[in-house]
């Protein structure tokens, strides 16, 4: 046996005055070490579960939305107007609705209320980012005046030139964008 090392059973049977002079805790040191390890494992498990829960909540609640520094989606344009009026119409601050981490503006209370009842029906695809850009695997700003509704879904593009490129193969671009979007929102 090495000098200074005593099995826990022998150390615990030493007289108190000798235990005080040992360079290590002589009583229940193994039980203490195991207890600390068990508490550490429980704490790490709890932190891990909490981290997963927070990450899941954030991913489920917050899909990326194209918004400005004031948290306004799609540069303040009314997403319902594309369907009802068939044109791009700027929204007004007094007709605002918060959804998916952004403020959405509308040209009327009626449009705001329609959106509030069914946001996914009116919100642009890919969070309001450029549909062509998403099909190419990246997020890009949009010009809300460059748009198209296809099969009841709203698509926005970066500018008129990019919108023209997108329109040359709408089904192909939508298929590529639908495949790329889940990866883009993980970034």
Describe this protein's structure.
Residues 50-62 have low confidence and may be disordered. The relative contact order is 0.10. The chain has 187 residues and is α+β, with helices and mostly antiparallel strands. It has a two-stranded antiparallel ribbon with strand order 1-2. The longest helix is centred in the N-terminal third of the chain and has 33 residues, at 29-61. The two termini are 57 Å apart. The chain has helices spanning 8-12, 16-19, 29-61, 81-84, 109-117, 119-122, 131-135, 160-167, 170-184, and strands at 92-99, 102-106, 143-150, 153-157. The protein is 47% helix and 14% strand. It has 2 domains: 28-61; 74-184, no CATH class. The chain is built from 9 helices and 4 strands.
What is the element layout, followed by pairings?
Elements: H1 8-12, H2 16-19, H3 29-61, H4 81-84, E1 92-99, E2 102-106, H5 109-117, H6 119-122, H7 131-135, E3 143-150, E4 153-157, H8 160-167, H9 170-184
Antiparallel strand pairs: 1-2, 3-4
The strand order across the widest sheet is 1-2
Unreliable parts: 50-62
Principal-axis shape:
globular
Structural class: alpha+beta
How many helical elements? 9
The total strand number stands at 4
Question: How would a crystallographer describe the biggest sheet?
Answer: 2 strands, antiparallel
Order of helices and strands: HHHHEEHHHEEHH
Mean pLDDT: 82
Count structural domains.
Answer: 2
First CA to last CA: what distance?
57 Å
Strand content: 5-15%
**Rounded Rg:** 30 Å
State the helicity in percent bands: 40-55%
